[in-house]
Amino acid sequence: MKQRYFSTFQLILLALFSALVVVAKIALRTPLQLPGHSGIFWMAIIIVGAKVVPKLGAASIIGVTSGILASFLGLGDFGVLNTLLSYAMVGITSDLILLLLGGDTGNLVVAIIVGTFGHMGKFLTKW
């Protein structure tokens, strides 16, 4: 029998975290007029999801799945493809930084660096 990388339970957890990202993007809209201020909330959800499922690719799955959900809900300001790519880039960038830093999201400094670079990935995609 072939061994799977992610179990079904882990995939369900990642899908729930991606739904939480979309809900946080919708529900926590605060009119601060600062670019990127909502990233604090949903980047924390992605980092916690990468800690709960500590495998390479977990943040990417959260990013792609939340991008699909956000695209269907019409959350993007530049269109469906840009929304999907920007959310996917958040996950991919977070996974790459976690890979470079050893994957310890329990360390606060590592979590801040992952959150910063992950959000910058979304910023660069929209730019």
Largest sheet: none
Radius of gyration: 14 Å
Instruction: Give the termini separation.
Output: 45 Å
What form results from the Cα inertia axes?
globular
- The overall strand count is 0
> Kindly state the mean pLDDT as a whole number?
84
Structural class: mainly alpha
Give helix % range. over 70%
Give the helices and strands as they follow along the chain. HHHHH
SS field, number of helical segments: 5
Strand content: under 5%
Account of the protein in words:
- This protein has 127 residues and is an all-alpha fold.
- 72% of the residues lie in helices and 0% in strands.
- The protein has five helices and no strands.
- The protein is globular, with a radius of gyration of 14 Å.
- The model has no long low-confidence stretch (mean pLDDT 84).
List keywords for this structure.
about 130 residues; single chain
Topology (elements, then pairings):
Layout: H1 8-27, H2 39-52, H3 58-73, H4 80-101, H5 108-126
